[in-house]
């Protein structure tokens, strides 16, 4: 694990910060959520939790939502030995007209939970709504929600998503939804996750000052209707590296895969690196791999391509990018 982290200095420092922030408090309690019996309900556990506590959720499907205010909180599924994938599914309703989980605290970690079917009147129903400081989401699934993960515009916030899966999120009518939508926060990191079969909107949309998208599989060639694979409408610094990227025939925007600076371009300038990605275009139309409308040059290096496309439009430098047969 540490060898892999050292390949990416940012993630090494971020890991150390996260590890330190998640160290349990000396007086931390473990609150057990069960389907019945002596355990707590999800809302009751959220109300009772104090800084540093652990909320442990027994396997099952929970038709309830919760708002978590405590800091340094760990919310995780109870997982049997050798089990793979989430053992807990949260199906709603949405709290505060926002999400299944509304996270207000800082240094919170959520792991091993599936979120399904979030719907709210304004069309922004999310599996998780992040309104606090740092939030780490790991080994979670998001499916059939209007939004997978959505943040507010808190300038100091950090969102980390790792080893998670997003499928069939978005809306077929009305407002569009995104699998991950980071507002104007400090940092978004999406690592080692899978995005597929999105309904309208984008797989990843980030207004964060710095965005890291590393080691993911994003898009498919079947029923995926996603517009952009990655959208960075406000520019900023970005590392998009070591991903497998796909664009299919049903994409709502077959002309662009990665869009940078398409809206207000308000973020401070930072290095933009797009490197060592595999991109396969099966959209049936010529696609621009990276379309950059910021004044900052994008550096493209070591990417591999299949299908008809223009690799770059806008400011940028290409290094050793090549087409595969």
What's the layout of helices and strands?
Elements: H1 2-6, H2 9-21, E1 30-33, H3 42-48, E2 54-57, E3 60-62, E4 66-68, E5 74-77, E6 88-90, E7 99-103, E8 108-111, E9 113-116, E10 126-130, E11 134-138, E12 141-143, E13 147-151, E14 158-162, E15 165-167, E16 180-182, E17 187-191, E18 194-196, E19 204-206, E20 210-214, E21 217-218, E22 230-232, E23 237-241, E24 244-247, E25 256-260, E26 272-275, E27 278-281, E28 287-292, E29 298-301, E30 304-306, E31 309-314, E32 316-319, E33 322-323
Parallel strand pairs: 1-2, 2-5, 3-6, 4-7, 5-8, 6-9, 7-10, 8-11, 9-12, 10-13, 11-14, 12-15, 13-16, 14-17, 15-18, 16-19, 17-20, 18-21, 19-22, 20-23, 21-24, 22-25, 23-26, 24-27, 25-28, 26-29, 27-30, 28-31, 29-32, 30-33
Task: Describe the 3D structure.
The protein has 325 residues and is mostly beta strands. It is 8% helix and 40% strand. The protein is built from three helices and 33 strands. A twelve-stranded parallel beta sheet has the order 1-2-5-8-11-14-17-20-23-26-29-32, covered by helices on one side. Strands 3-6-9-12-15-18-21-24-27-30-33 form an eleven-stranded parallel beta sheet, with no helix packed on it. It is globular and about 60 Å long.
Concise structural overview:
The protein is mainly beta. It has helices at 2-6, 9-21, 42-48; strands at 30-33, 54-57, 60-62, 66-68, 74-77, 88-90, 99-103, 108-111, 113-116, 126-130, 134-138, 141-143, 147-151, 158-162, 165-167, 180-182, 187-191, 194-196, 204-206, 210-214, 217-218, 230-232, 237-241, 244-247, 256-260, 272-275, 278-281, 287-292, 298-301, 304-306, 309-314, 316-319, 322-323. It has a 12-stranded parallel β-sheet, covered by helices on one side. The chain has an 11-stranded parallel β-sheet with strand order 3-6-9-12-15-18-21-24-27-30-33, with no helix packed on it. The protein has a 10-stranded parallel β-sheet with strand order 4-7-10-13-16-19-22-25-28-31.
């Amino acid at each position: 694990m540490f060898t892999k982290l050292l390949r990416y200095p940012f993630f090494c420092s971020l890991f150390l910060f996260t590890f330190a922030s998640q160290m349990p408090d000396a007086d931390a309690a473990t609150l057990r959520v069960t389907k019945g019996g002596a355990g707590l309900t999800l809302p009751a556990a959220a109300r009772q939790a104090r800084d540093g506590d652990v909320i442990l959720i027994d396997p099952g499907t929970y038709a309830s939502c919760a708002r978590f205010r405590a800091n340094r909180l760990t919310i995780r599924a109870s997982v049997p030995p050798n089990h793979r994938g989430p053992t807990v599914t949260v199906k709603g309703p949405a709290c505060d007209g926002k999400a299944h989980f509304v996270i207000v605290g800082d240094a919170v970690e959520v792991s091993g939970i599936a979120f399904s079917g979030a719907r709210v009147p304004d069309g922004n129903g999310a599996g998780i709504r992040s309104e606090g400081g740092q939030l780490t989401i790991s080994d979670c699934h998001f499916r059939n929600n209007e939004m997978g993960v959505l943040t507010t515009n808190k300038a100091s916030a950090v969102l980390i998503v790792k080893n998670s899966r997003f499928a069939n999120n978005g809306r077929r009518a009305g407002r569009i939804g995104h699998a991950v939508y980071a507002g104007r926060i400090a940092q978004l990191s999406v690592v080692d996750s899978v995005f597929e079969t999105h309904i309208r909107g984008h797989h990843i949309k980030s207004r964060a000052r710095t965005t890291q998208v590393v080691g993911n599989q994003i898009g498919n060639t079947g029923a995926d209707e996603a517009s952009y694979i990655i959208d960075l409408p406000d520019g900023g610094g970005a590392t998009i590296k070591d991903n497998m990227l796909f664009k299919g025939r049903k994409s709502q925007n077959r002309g662009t895969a990665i869009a940078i600076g398409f809206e207000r371009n308000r973020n401070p300038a930072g290095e933009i690196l797009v490197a060592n990605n595999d991109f396969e275009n099966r959209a049936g139309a010529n696609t621009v791999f990276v379309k950059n409308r910021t004044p900052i040059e994008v550096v493209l290096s070591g990417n591999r391509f299949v299908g008809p496309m223009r690799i770059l439009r806008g400011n940028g430098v290409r290094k050793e990018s090549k087409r595969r047969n």
